[in-house]
Amino acid sequence: xxxxxxxxxxxxxxxxxxxxxxGFLEGLSDIHFDWHDELPPTYGFLLFHHRVVRYFxxxxxxxxxxxxxxxxxSDLQGMGVQPFTANLGNIDTLGELANFSxxxxxxxxxxxxxIGSATQxxxxxPRQNIFFQPFWRLHLYIDGLFQTVLQQYGxxxxxxxxxxxxxxxGHLEVSHHSWxxxx
Length: 183
What we know:
Distance between the termini: 16 Å
Radius of gyration: 16 Å
Strand content: under 5%
Low-confidence stretches: none
Shape: globular
Mean pLDDT: 96
Largest sheet: none
Number of strands: 0
Oligomer: single chain
Number of helices: 7
């Protein structure tokens, strides 16, 4: 499946469930499983989850009181997870974005298991984990880091051209097809 097919499924899901948070999560369950099951991957870890988190925030999180927030470094340490560390200031090329994605995905895989053990949630099951707050707290944390490097990349490679980090992600998805599986 091409990355555009996953992107289009996510866009359709968001459009179809814009007023239905439960429907969004139920529909995301199959898409998330399919994304995890695809080998080789066509839609990179950070780009896929960035779009998922954006839709979650708009459709689900905006209706919650209180809203789900990203894990803090202290939260992570309390579950035995060392917060992700990297020099984000040096990420400003497509290759560096791809390396960052690979590095944070490896960290994330370990974090999923540790958080699942600490919270007793099925963090390792892509059909179920999207229904649990720890999944979203982890991915909000990761997406915050990704937004930082996306904006940085946009500012350095396309000075003053992009509206925000989602616009940079959209640019990557439509203009840099060969990089999408790696970012």
